[in-house]
Design a protein that fits this description.
The chain has 85 residues and is an alpha+beta fold. 56% of the residues lie in helices and 13% in strands. The protein has a 3-stranded antiparallel sheet with strand order 1-3-2. The longest helix is centred in the first third of the chain and has 13 residues. The protein is globular. The two termini are 23 Å apart.
Length: 85
């Protein structure tokens, strides 16, 4: 891992709450992430995530007028789009 990548990872962990980070570290598949947390975690822009939701590509949970994403669903979504040679 490059030094810059280590710094980026540390910054991402700081941005997420300590309790949520603990759930992520323990790989709890039921942890719910906000759009902003998902952006921080996977590095895509909020507009991209909203587009995936609109196109019904990414599963989500609506809480009031907010979107929440289950970590397991996001991992599955990304794994299905992984290109292997």
């Amino acid at each position: 891992m490059l030094p810059g990548e280590v710094e980026k990872g540390a910054k991402k962990r700081e941005m997420l709450g300590a309790s949520k980070q603990l759930l992520l570290d323990n790989r709890d598949p039921n942890v719910l992430l906000s759009t902003k947390e998902l952006v921080t975690l996977i590095g895509f822009r909020p507009k991209t995530i909203r587009r995936w939701v609109t196109q019904k590509l990414l599963n989500y949970i609506r809480v009031g007028n907010r979107l929440r994403f289950r970590l397991a669903a996001v991992e599955l979504f990304l794994a299905q789009r992984e290109v292997r040679k």
